[in-house]
Amino acid sequence: MKCENCSKKECSKKQKNDDTRSASVDALSSNDGSEEKNEFDTLANAKILLSDCLACDSCMTLEEGARVFQQNQKEFFRVLNLNKKCDTSKHKVLAVSLCPQSLPYFAAKFNLSVNEAAKRLCGFLKSLGVHYVFDTTIAADFSILESQREFVQRYQRRNQEEHALPMFASACPGWIRYAERVLTNLVTSHICTAKSPQQIMGSLVKGYFARQQNLSPDKIFHVVVAPCYDKKLEALREDFYTALYNSAEVDCVLTSGEIVQIMEQKNVSMKDVTEVAVDSLFDGLKEGDVVRHDGKRSDGYLEHIFKHAAKELFGVDVKEITYKALKNKDFQEVTLEKDGETVLRFAAAYGFRNIQNMVLKLKKGKFFYHFVEVLACPGGCLNGKGQAQSEDGKADRALLAQMEEVYTAIPVRLPEANLHVQRMYQDWLEGMDSKKAQDTLHTSYSAVNQSTSSLDIKW
Question: Which of 15, 228, 296, 377 is 20 to 30 A from 51, comparing alpha carbons?
Answer without folding.
Answer: 296
